[in-house]
Amino acid sequence: MAYELYYWDGLQGRGEFVRLALEEAQADYVDVARGEKSAGLGIGAMISELDSRSGAYPPFAPPFLKDGDLLIPQTANILFYLGPKLSLAPRDEGLRYVANGLQMTIVDLVAEVHDTHHPIASGLYYEDQKHEAKARAADFLAHRMPKFLGYFERVLAQNPSGAQHMVGDALTYVDLSIFQIVEGLRYAFPKATNHLAERYPHVCALHDAVAVRPNIAAYLASPRRLPFNETGIFRHYPELDHATR
Amino acid sequence: MAYELYYWDGLQGRGEFVRLALEEAQADYVDVARGEKSAGLGIGAMISELDSRSGAYPPFAPPFLKDGDLLIPQTANILFYLGPKLSLAPRDEGLRYVANGLQMTIVDLVAEVHDTHHPIASGLYYEDQKHEAKARAADFLAHRMPKFLGYFERVLAQNPSGAQHMVGDALTYVDLSIFQIVEGLRYAFPKATNHLAERYPHVCALHDAVAVRPNIAAYLASPRRLPFNETGIFRHYPELDHATR
């Protein structure tokens, strides 16, 4: 039976980290909210899961995954669940917790990227918190982005199996997520990421290696890959972007 | 061999969610950063793990746990790992992912609580972002806290095994974390949480049931339980707290 991925239509957002894993593995999946209402899909099908007043363990927010009767919420949790099934997790049990910890750190970074444009309230428009967004984005580019990327660079450099992968000696979902982080940061902050390859060579080499994997390249060229836009997590607001030292 | 918990000394913070699980299970553990330097413990021992320029898979930030050779970072990941070993996870495999998803949602709430006092930059003092903190805290109390607590209330009400536990029919680490959330929110926002028991009866009943468990009660009365203070996640700044509708 096909996996059912539930995430907002029209943006990459947090759902994209799951899509990349499903696409790399050529898994059979339905992107529920992007489907046709006549087929029982669409946003309504997702909202009814979120709003269920009777179902056991309803999800707090998208993305969530359904695999038969099991409903799994939270990006890193979905990937932890799918990883072994899609052959995108380390074979070693201990390293699976390492991968999970790295993915949760990526999730933390994604939340901080979101808050560069919504530092005060996720329910208000960007325009209503633009002043504060400038301050938060400046701090993000000066301190937080280098801290996270420097950390990922160090994890790659110190991987006992080599700097080609974040964990172990083979591709995992964490590598795919690093690709997405680099893509997203470059879209949102072209000036601040201008020297990314120079400063974080292993991170950027991993990004480039993922981009040319046949299944990923085919996905990126397909209509299934939504373009980045200003309703997602990574938003390009020129006033928030500037070159960093 | 004892588990080694690494977290900042002097504050409950994110480490407390792990401490509560270890204490409930009466597990053998060392709170490394709070130990004596002469015993090879203390903050220095933690910093050297964080700053390692040779170790495989260094952690990004505390808390992290060492179990023999395995180093496990990220609060929810540590609890996912420890849960089955401490008999604080559901026996059912599928429900373990449910528990993990709920714990990650608690982690998200904790990050939002942190940002009520640090909405612009975690590296700056509260006093330097007080104005923005007032705006973010007001939004948190009006929208985000009710959204999270209403969700947890719904999960309890809709638990097929009864409203005594977040997942399944027995105590899990998720229940312990809900206790800590209620404790923390009441400390930080006494006015805004004045009507908590009325609005979220299942959540508060769970909090009360955890508080009187013998191992938890003994821990709370011990010097191992640090008091809440204004260096942790849950901080009481009276100017950020106000009664809500």
Structure description:
- Chains A, B: Residues 1-90 form the GST N-terminal domain.
- Chains A, B: InterPro entries: Glutathione-S-Trfase_C-like, Glutathione-S-Trfase_C_sf, Glutathione_S-Trfase_N, GST_C, GST_superfamily, Thioredoxin-like_sf.
- Chains A, B: This is Glutathione S-transferase.
- Chains A, B: It holds the Pfam family GST_C_3.
- Chains A, B: Residues 100-233 form the GST C-terminal domain.
- The structure is a homodimer of 245-residue chains.
- With 245 residues, chain A is an alpha+beta fold.
- The first copy, chain A, has two domains: 3-85, Glutaredoxin (3-Layer(aba) Sandwich); 93-240, Glutathione S-transferase Yfyf (Class Pi), Chain A, domain 2 (Up-down Bundle), CATH 1.20.1050.
- The first copy, chain A, contains nine helices and four strands, in the order E-H-E-H-E-E-H-H-H-H-H-H-H.
- Chain A has a four-stranded mixed beta sheet, with helices on one face.
- In chain A, helix 4 (93-117) runs parallel beside helix 6 and helix 6 packs across helix 8.
- The model of chain A has no long low-confidence stretch (mean pLDDT 97).
- At the A-B interface, strand 4, helix 3, helix 4 and helix 5 of A face strand 4, helix 3, helix 4 and helix 5 of B.
